[in-house]
Amino acid sequence: MTRLGSLVSCALLGAALLGCGSNASSGGGGATSALALIPADNGIAGWKFDNSNSNLANGTVTATTEKATEGYIDGAAADFFAAPNNPVQFAWQNYLNTTISTADTSTGAPDPYFPNGATVTLYVLQMPSATQASGLYTSLRTASLYDGKNWVEPSSPEVGTDSRIADTGDHWWINFYKGNYYVEVSLGPSYNPGPTYTAGNTVTQAAAYAFAQAIAAKI
């Protein structure tokens, strides 16, 4: 992450981002598994474990085969394991933040689609090599779940080695890779959203970037 990207994220989110102010992390990286990249409960300030999904009732989900992964995320696993991709480990955790500000930066009014904060779904895949992580990132771009989205590949803020983000119409979706890891961060509304969605909300976009940057810093 560039110094500018860090300053922008810290300005928008204050101490909620690991690496801002007194909450700074050493950022040594060197994760040894997909599970090692999953932040602890409140490991990113304000983001608490959300284990309301029955699959997460016993905590963070991990799997090492396509069949086991598909048991958790249904057909989406097929794209992750499509040849020549051969993930070593898949990890999944959901988070809920009830304190994050979701005000529209142009009006200052609360975003009606995020009245009670926001949620994050985090997928991490450990690949056998950096080449496979890069290859998975590239191949998924044309997979059915990803094709047709209005993806933007920003140069700033930087997330991992390469990243893309899309406003899907009901959530911000970031995909990135770094080292031998491929990561997806999906930031959506709280469980009781209003009837409309404010497309392009820069506050929730910044929150999605900040969460993704915190994961990338661990690698």
Radius of gyration computed on alpha carbons = 16 Å
> What structural class is derived from the secondary structure elements?
alpha+beta
Average pLDDT rating: 82
Order of helices and strands: HEEHHEEHEEEH
What level of helicity do the residues show?
A: 10-25%
Stretches where pLDDT is under 50 for at least 5 consecutive residues are 1-28
> How many beta-strand runs?
7
What profile does the largest beta sheet have? Answer: 7 strands, antiparallel
Total number of helices = 5
Describe this structure in words.
The protein is built from five helices and seven strands; from the N terminus they run H-E-E-H-H-E-E-H-E-E-E-H. It has 219 residues and is of the alpha+beta class. It has one domain (3-216). The chain is globular, with a radius of gyration of 16 Å. The chain starts with a helix and ends with a helix. Residues 1-28 have low confidence and may be disordered.
Features of this protein?
219 residues, alpha+beta, 7-stranded antiparallel beta sheet, 7 strands, 21% strand
Short description:
This protein has helices spanning 3-13, 66-73, 77-81, 130-140, 202-216, and strands at residues 48-49, 61-63, 89-97, 118-126, 162-167, 172-178, 181-189.
Question: Which SSEs are present, and which pair or pack?
Answer:
Blueprint: H1 3-13, E1 48-49, E2 61-63, H2 66-73, H3 77-81, E3 89-97, E4 118-126, H4 130-140, E5 162-167, E6 172-178, E7 181-189, H5 202-216
Antiparallel strand pairs: 1-3, 2-3, 3-4, 4-7, 5-6, 6-7
Helix pairs in contact: 1-5
